[in-house]
Structure formats: structure tokens, C-alpha cells
Predict the 3D structure of the following.
Amino acid sequence: MKVGLDGFALHPLKLDPFGMFDYCAEHGFAGVLLSGARGLSETLDHGELMALRSRADELGLYSHVSVYPTNPHLSDKTVDQVVADLTAQTEAAAACGWHELHSSLGAEKERYDSEVSWAQQFADSTEVLKGVAPVLRDHGSRINLENHGDTTTFELVRLAEEVGPDVVGICLDTANLLVFAENPVDAVTRAAPYVHLTHTKDAIIFFCETGFQRQGRAVGQGSIPWQEVLPILGRYSPELHLSIEDHKWFFYAHIFDEKWMGEQKDLGRDELSRTVRIAWEVDRKIRTGELPDPEEYEAIPYADEMQQRLESGRDYLNGLLERLGLKG
């Protein structure tokens, strides 16, 4: 395993992908996942994309790119039009040697605040992926869908199995597990056979009026039990790239809300209780002063702490991987 960055972790610097590569090389990170509005979402020009790939290779960095979301309801496009777009992006990426591709079905608002039911969005996204599957297989490529506040690991596993795990996998965002009240160890165990990319992220959760809040912390300073989850991931993907995606902001899991919990039909009582225990333990640490007050901590701009947070996470993960015998 190698420790790199997701480009979004550097958002205060407003770097282009070349700048992100240079930053990683200068600060001891092994590579970059260019998620979001980077690379393939900006151009399909082979020369421009090869320049990106060549620069990463020249610096000895891994690199991954994103393709458009697979959900046709994010735009006015039909299923067939989204299939055509993703086909073109898959082919462009494969021509540059990128085969493990990042994507998603959307974000939290798609699941909870859309006029189109989540079931319909999920079904249409499945049809899109089935439409792209032949070109993915032809190129030995795979679209790895992120649990982006919209899709649970339960759903992503079913989707990978239905379309085919050779062409559909998971980009695991470890902190986003908590916004569905999924327990990190349970969820990683469930998802690990399908995980080929990561947004390696840490967070704490603590109680609020509607359930609990999630707050991002530097990797190794939150509630994700890395010493447990990394061996599980390594069992299936020993060369997995751990791309740190760090930021602040509060997110919520409304476990005291009957309607919200009704959406989490896969989440069992035992798993939920293990997640609630994490929140209880964090609340105890906040009360005793072992953890800083979340509101005061959130008030410090991420930009002021970015480099220290990223380097701390890098060093923590590299040290742990070394001790676990997982460092690549």
C-alpha cells in the first residue's frame, strides 16, 4: 500500500493537476487521485491527458482520474447519452494507462432532496453501468463508485455484483461511512473485496439533536480504527493506494429521525449499536477535554492547518503500514 492524496485535499491552494503532482513529490506523498472537476471532466484531448500521465510517471507518482457520475438524473441527459459520455472517457483514460476510474452516483441531496426517488436513480445508474460494461471489459477498466453521502456500502456491493465486479468496484471513503451510521469495521469488511480506490479520511462523531454530527479530523486523530481496517483492505488489495482526502465541515446522520432511519433498511441493530458506541466515546472525550470542542475546532480555517494535517496523516499511515507489514 502507498499513501497519496486526493486532489480535493489541496483545494485551498487552487492548484491544477500538474501543481498537485509537484506538491506530492515535494512533500513525500506517493500519488494523486484526481477526483472532481479534473482531467477527464475537463478534456478528452489525448495530448493533454498524456502530458498529465507522463508528468506523474516522471515524478514516480501513482495517478488516477475520475469520470462523470453514472446517474443520468444529475443532468438532462438520457441513459444512452451518459453511456456514450462514459464510453468516450473510458477509452480516453485507457489510452493513457488509467484503468481504475473514480466516479459516484451523486451526493447526499440526490438521495434525500430529489424529485426523483432514490430507487429510480439507482436503477437508472445501474442501466448506465451495464451499458458501459462492454467497453470497460474491452479495456480491462473498472469504474469505482464512491460512497459519497448518497450510496451505502450495502448498495455498492449489490451494484458491483449485479453489473460485474470486474467492471464495477468501490472507491471507499472511510469517513463517509459514518454519515450512514455504518460501523467502519463492519462496512470495510463488507466492502473490501470490491475496493480498488480510496478516499482515506478520518472523522469523529458526537451526539446532536437529530442523531450525531460528523467532523473531519486529520488521519489518525479521529474514530476510524485504522489498525483494524487496513489489514482487512490489504487482504484483498495489497497494492491499494490510500489517497488522503481531508477537509472540515459538519455532516449529519439523523438516527433519531424515523423517516431518515426508514431509508437505512440494510443497517442492522447490532451494527448501529457499534456506531453509536463510537459517538458515546467521543462525547466522553469532549466532556473530559481529551478532544477539543468541535465548534471551536471547526472555527479554525482548514487552510491554516492543511499542510500539518496532511503531513500528520501521511506519517501516521506510513508508520502503521510499516508496522503491519503492508507498506508498498
